Amino acid sequence: MTTVSLLDVASYLPGEPVPAEFYTDYPGAETALRDHSMFKPPAYRHHVAQNETAVDMIEQACQPLIDRHGIAAIREVDVLLVHTQLPDLPFVGCGTEVARRLGCHPEWLIDVHNSGCASFVYMLKLAKQILSSTDAKTALICNAQNAAGQVFTQSEVRRMAQASVPGDGCGVGYLAASRESPLLATACEHLGEHAGDMTVSCEDRKYWEAGRSQVRIGFTDAKIAKVISRGNRLVPDMVTRVCEQIKVATTDIDILVTNQPNRTFLRNWHEALALPPERHLDTFEECGNMFGAAIPVTLDRAIQAGQVKDGDLLVLGGFAHAGDFAGAAAIQWRAGPAMAGRP
Fold first, then answer.
1. Number of domains composing the chain
2. 186/206 Cα distance (integer angstroms)
3. HSE (side-chain half, CA atoms, 13 Å) at 112
4. At 314, which CATH number?
5. Per-residue pLDDT tens for 37-88?
6. CA–CA dist 297, 277 (Å, integer)
7. CA quadruple 196, 200, 203, 206: dihedral sign
8. How, if at all, do strands 200-201 and 216-217 pair?
9. Which domain holds residue 244?
10. pTM
């Protein structure tokens, strides 16, 4: 099969960092769950502006790719895959508007509505399949997380412990049929038996119906226990599976990038994989839980900081929602002509 490479990533964080006190000092703030491993707040997170859309965020995130590769390369992508945490319009994904803003006319344009916090991995798999089995040559994959500054800042939701954990951000990846930074393997699994365990709560109405109750995640003690149990297991399992595909031990991973749900998951995952914490990238304290955008944003920030070296074995992994999807991908990161000039 044609070798497919992740040539570059870029990201965008909206606004100034928002401190934890925005939530913890809010009148009537819930205290019972503040120290729970699922809800202990990060020091900072970012929020989308009131009129900032998911497409605005993607456009901002793509600008470094345009600067490095040229507008023509981005406009000529054959594949455009987009995951938006909170679509700005009912029924409609934002992929076609992204294409309009960037001036793209991709043959393959898919709004990915599943795979949540691991959607970057799933889109890598989809892009690899398309690029290696069709005439398509390049792909752009986009993750926009825009729920923190909209859903979790509502007056009633803001009081809840769950509200202080999410943060907004956007990450994008540029792929090509090439050998410069090859995608070595992917492992993805849809776990239908866990579908439906993540719910939203609006009390006595459906979320689109008029009413006074505010949309929030429907957490219960039983659901929290399920998420913790599944999350602790799923990510190490998928990372191990992808390492087995390329015949390396998990201890050979140079850089691990996962979704960033909370401190406890991050610690448990690298301990389960016998990796030192410095090899497991962590943006939770600065950015909170960015859901699907966490993997590309965290990777981009690490590359800019010089933490990812040429030739590193890079493994990405995560799980979605209450455990209905999990995936991992292995990449041999090595700089080539496409990376010239990046930090």
1. 2
2. 37
3. 26
4. 3.40.47.10
5. 889 999 999 999 999 999 999 999 999 999 999 999 999 999 999 999 999 9
6. 18
7. negative
8. antiparallel
9. 184-194+220-335
10. 0.95
